[in-house]
Amino acid sequence: MSQPVLIKVYAALTPASEELFAQCSTIAAGALAMEGDDGPFVFLEDSLLRISFEGIYFPWEDMIPVLEKAFACGARGKMDVLDMENWTMTRLEAKQDRSGTFVLHQGTVSLNHVLDYSGL
Fold first, then answer.
1. What is the pLDDT of residues 24-54, one digit of tens each?
2. 8 A C-beta contact, residue 59 and residue 9
């Protein structure tokens, strides 16, 4: 019997370095995917870093310091974490503060809100 998908993580950041790719790949190695899915879950295409994961567990909270550093160094983008068990979506995104510096902004909403907002 297969395990249901409990978490989905999607991210896109640019510009991304080989160092950022290596850090994210190391963290993603702790993920617990669906049976038979060995990854990879982190991709570097030119200067675009992408994360695409659906499975049982992903250490997304361990990515927060890495994203904070990347945003402070000029990367832009976001990471969405869909928690299917708690029916929430957490978005981590580069946002400009009052001083003009880009910082990590994090917010969590119900997936019902996301679906209503998207028009589905």
1. 999 999 999 988 887 899 999 999 999 999 9
2. no
Q: For residues 91 and 78, what is the distance between their CA atoms, to the nearest angstrom?
A: 7
Tell me phi and psi for residue 90, to 5 degrees.
-110, 130
Q: Which residues of 75-86 are buried (b: 16+ CB within 10 A; e: fewer)?
A: bebbbbbbbeee
Collapsing DSSP to helix, strand or coil, 64 comes out as helix
* Tens of pLDDT, residues 54-70: 999 999 999 999 999 99
Q: What is the pTM of this model?
A: 0.89
64-72 helix and 18-28 helix, angle to the nearest 10 degrees? 170
What residues contact residue 62 under an 8 Å CB cut-off, 6+ apart?
27, 30
